[in-house]
Amino acid sequence: MNRRVIGLLLLAGLIALGCIAAGCTDIPETTSGQSAPPTGEETPGPSAEGAGNVSAGNNRFAADLYRHLASDPGSAGKNIFFSPYSISSALAITYEGARGTTADEIGSVLHLPQNETLRRAGFAGLDAVLNSGDENYTLRTANALWAEETYPFLPEYVDTAARWYRANVTNLDFINDPEGSRATINRWVEEKTEDKIRDLLPAGSVDPMTRLVITNAIYFKGTWVKQFDPAETTEEEFRVAPGETVRVPMMHRTDEDAIYGYAETESLQVLRMPYAHADGTELSMLVLLPREDNLTAAEEALDAETLVDLRKTLADQRVRVVFPKFTLETTYSLPQVLAAMGMPTAFSDAADFSGMDGTEDLFISDVVHKAFVDVNEEGTEAAAATGVVMNLASAPMEDRTPVFRADHPFVFLIVEEDSGTVLFAGRVVNPEGA
Prior knowledge:
It comes from Methanoculleus nereidis. By secondary structure, this protein is an alpha+beta fold. The protein has helices spanning 3-21, 48-71, 84-95, 100-110, 116-130, 155-165, 178-192, 296-300, 304-313, 335-341, 354-357; strands spanning 137-148, 167-172, 210-223, 234-241, 244-253, 259-264, 268-274, 284-290, 315-318, 321-324, 326-333, 362-375, 379-392, 410-416, 421-428. The protein folds into two domains: 3-221 and 328-392, Antithrombin, Chain I, domain 2 (2-Layer Sandwich), CATH 3.30.497; 230-324, Alpha-1-antitrypsin, domain 1 (Roll). The chain has a six-stranded mixed sheet, with helices on both faces. It has a four-stranded antiparallel sheet with strand order 8-7-6-9. Strand 14 (410-416) and strand 15 (421-428) form a beta hairpin. Mean pLDDT is 83; it is low at 1-46.
């Protein structure tokens, strides 16, 4: 596996963007460990080519989503942090059950490889690498399917999720116990993210019409190769806008050993701060610092090809680094954003997820995402989770409201309710008669 491919995926997907901002009745249930491939089948090994294609697509999606979030008036002056890999993973599993226009739109927005083998092997390969372990840092990602216990999902869909995405299937009672089901899913997310992501699914997001929830969780904790000395951290001004500052703790690394990958352009300074690693894939934080206060130069560099070019120009040299400590926690509900990016059908009654259940009755009711990052002298801790909630479309229902038309003789009683005692009884044959 090309380490540069994986490094780019993670820095674009988990760390760098935050710094710029500074199932069913017929299917067996699996509740522990990772799902095994269907009986008699073996999951193909990691595909470097597929991983490269999935990585490139993920980074294009990262740039697209960042721009949409940044352009939202509600984001003006606010931090942004998210994990495009987490969102892509959850929606890729969703894509496996989409058909027709629904699939075309999701695939286009996520920039998924059209070749089925490359796409699936790419995600499987990346998942294997990200979970391969390293003695110097913690990095893991996990997928899961949560299915309504009475709903007949297609075995082919569940097998695909298990084989290629290691997505466990757990049957829940969404119909009779939606809140209990929501709590179960949220506990899984908390466990996978070391309690950094809590209440991923907010109250009311799961209801009796929910048939499937697809989740991804990703967690990372690593130390800098060149850690900062806490004794050198001081309170200093940070410009939040021209003429406006706040005081924050700023870390300093300016000694002779402060050797970092560094590059600069007319509008940017670029710094790579690596995390300690042993045999695992190399991880680093890439920081894009505009020379002026305007973030436009940095945001324009988020283009996947531009990032590749910038990384190629990095050269190790001594750099005097002054960098803020910060902690970010973000929450996003993404249906409107994803629809605006080009996949509106998935959220409508016209959605076609027949690859999941053989019908066109399911649609995405919500895509929720939460992310957390803490950057300090020692290193970085980051976590994110994504939930895709699939609901049953509301079909036109027969009006069963009772009609009580007393236009013919009737009997009536006057009853004392506590005891049920009939106090009066009578009948009406003609309301105008004696």
